[in-house]
Amino acid sequence: MSADRQMLFEMVERMPTFSQSVVRILQLTATGDAEPRELVRLVEHDPILTLKVLKLVNSAYFGLGRQVSSIKQGVVYVGVNTIKHLAISVAAIGALPRHNAAGFDMDAFWTHSLVTGAAARLIAQRQGVPRNDAMAYFIAGLLHDIGQVVLAQGMPEQYRAVLQAEREKGGSIVAVERELLGTDHAETGSLLGAHWHLPAELVECIAHHHDVAGAGSEAPLVMAVFAANQVARFLDHPDSAVSRAEALPESVRNWLGLTLEQLVEALEGLPDELASARAFVQLPEAHA
Amino acid sequence: MKLTMRGCRGSIASPGPDTVRYGGNTTCLQIETAGGDTLIIDAGTGVRQLGLELMARPPVRCAIFITHTHWDHIQGLPFFAPLFVPGSEIRICGSFDPVYQKSLAEILSQQMQYCFFPVSDTELKGDIRYETLHEGQVVQYGSATVRNTVMSHPVFDYGYRIDADGRSLFFTGDFEPPVNIYDPDDEEFEDYAAGIAAQRTVLLEALRGVHTLVIDAQYTEDEYHAGKVGWGHGTYHSAIALAEEAAIPRVLLTHHDPARPDDALDAIIAALLAERAGRGGPEVIMAREGLCLEI
Q1: What is the ipTM of this complex?
Q2: Which A residues in the span 91-110 are in contact with B, Cβ-Cβ below 8 Å?
């Protein structure tokens, strides 16, 4: 599907962000003295803004000597105004419709992404990952399903059929995507990441977040995001579009020393993260 | 290698009776190597007079390095006479603009659009070559080697290191040492601090062995902390501290605030020298237009 792949890249290039983020960015930058902390929080919590900022700063045009793997690092490296103007320009494209032709629930997707990111960070801390590297786990969790948005936006009719088949037949969404589209959201997301020169570990993590074995045994980021994804599914609201949790494969269980149920119990602070993610995804006016 | 300061003013040109001694022109540094190569860093309004002087010995061959495209660093370029003269060979180097997604050539040609300036860039007669530099790209220009480093500023900004004749000069362009945007109590504080430390390490590496540091020092500590944090400029003390940390023997303080009269600059440098008397460390000089130093 090489022609489609090009179409997807171009589509994502023009893809707007979440309507909640658009409102917040326009509010925050309406005065000249936007609080940098707020700006960072806003970008870091939006998968599309994060993706676009990382894409930009890692692009060949930008020509940086070192790869940027987090928004904070980007702010220190290239300046807060660069990040601010990028966020504004993404916001100016407009807002993603909260309900799209594919019937893909954007709010549920976003909440799931935030919870997965938070859980991946908590898992990293629990596994003794240095604090400064834990941010990479949050980002990988935040972006792991980005391919779903790409597919839902890029081929809404086909993706509607995918979601319907998944609901009716159950089973893994990846298998349904493969059957009906010839690709899946992990592949699509990783193609996008590679095309945009995102850090290799992040691209690999997106590619293998449903397939830990495929990533090889020495990939703690992949194992953490796999587990975080299942934790988030476990906690997701039952009527969300995201399917239920799978058990952890043996390699992940051994790495953590826990089953999924034990992991959910062990991650203190997770309920707060879930509440905070749900609040963040609320429209700002309603939340204010 | 010889350095001549052609403009030391930040933000906007500020001519007048109170800026005669330190000068009112905006940023421009002229570097001449022993081999006769001319390099220019930034084309603020100071580059106009430099262009006229270079025209005394045509044809003009030079390389211009742009730290960033804020007005005070490029505004003199349309008035740089050699651009208009057949036979000039001018190489203009700088970064890509990440916000507007435009090359240096596109950004610079915008300020020569007809609504801003009567001559368009397509009418320039010199042989002008634009080069967009990626970070760390090494440019060899005659006997000089030029390396860039991304500096901390709200927008993308390159500092340049020039090595020639066995000596080394570094100009920061606009530079504010990064400030942690989080409070020490915030969970993110350490993460951000680690990012700042990593940037500092890269900068110190770029400054290793430099003989003269020309650095943005626009504010006093009091001014900085009374509302200028995050504006993208350093203080006299932060500038000297960087020179000390990098063990650089000489530091030139520049990017003078447009509202700072000569007498105030005199008083500031006198106070700095008094404060530092007997402490060793770098020689501290307040940059002024026309100042010429052997590096």
Answers
A1: 0.82
A2: none
